[in-house]
Amino acid sequence: MQHFIKKYPLSFLCIIVIWILCLMPIPETPLSNINMIDKWTHFVMYGGWCAVLWIEYGLYHHTINKKRTFLYAFILPILMGGLIEIVQHYCTGGNRSGEFIDFVADAIGVVLGALIGIPLALKISKRNRDS
Known about the structure:
Number of helices: 5
Distance between the termini: 29 Å
Helix content: over 70%
Strand content: under 5%
Order of helices and strands: HHHHH
Shape: elongated
């Protein structure tokens, strides 16, 4: 775990922030009136995290290990989204509700983050290889 935190500090920070935001009670704000704002929030959180994870991976590697990155930067974020929805449903005392649609928004965010992050990781790792 220490190795992950040291190598991927921004990704680790994203994980912590996502867990905190997903488990705290939702305050009323003017944004609450925007249709599906919670889905957009999930989409942006997971998309941003996944892009950051890919970029950090590119910074520390000369080549992309496709199997490993598929697991760690694609499958695990989606599984974490599902786990958070389960925790919200069963462990927040009714303050939060676990929703399948939130899980779908998480997964779509991961896909978008990968579409943004993979080319950046490839470019960064190629730059590392060339220098």
